[in-house]
Design goal:
Length: about 150
């Protein structure tokens, strides 16, 4: 009786390795996207603080240079936030592409694994049939002698 050997086993191992690498890439892309979003939220909070500082400076009749510096800081934050929003959009697109790639690989691995299970089941049924045929032959020979 032959042991079951799946002919696409090396391909299945290759796909599993490829899927694992895709999962790692996806987690890196997600971490990068999340860090950009975190940075964007930090900039939003800094801008809110700067607007509050401007209102405080106006109430207290502080030095006009502080207000101008704060306004320049706000403008700088606005331009950086615009650049960052573009980077976030690119990061989200890259994340979506990597996610789709991972899902496609997972589907392919599932198909191959299902195929392997079906072939293994076929092999087992063939072995059972052969074994049953051998047992029938042995019994027929024994009964023929008696």
């Amino acid at each position: 009786m032959k042991k079951f050997k799946y002919r696409l086993n090396s391909y299945l191992k290759f796909l599993n390795m490829k899927r694992d690498n895709a999962q790692k890439e996806l987690s890196r892309a997600e971490a990068y996207k999340n860090s950009l979003i975190k940075k964007y939220h930090w900039m939003e909070n800094e801008m809110k603080k700067s607007f509050e500082n401007n209102s405080q400076f106006g109430k207290n009749n502080m030095n006009i240079h502080l207000v101008e510096d704060n306004n320049q800081f706000i403008q700088l934050l606005k331009t950086q936030m615009q650049d960052l929003s573009g980077q976030i959009a690119l990061a989200e697109r890259a994340f979506a592409e990597k996610h789709k790639k991972l899902i496609d690989l997972q589907v392919e691995v599932k198909k191959i694994e299902h195929n392997k299970e079906m072939k293994e089941l076929e092999h087992k049924t063939e072995l059972k049939k052969k074994l049953q045929k051998q047992m029938d032959n042995i019994n027929a020979i024994r009964l023929g002698r008696l």
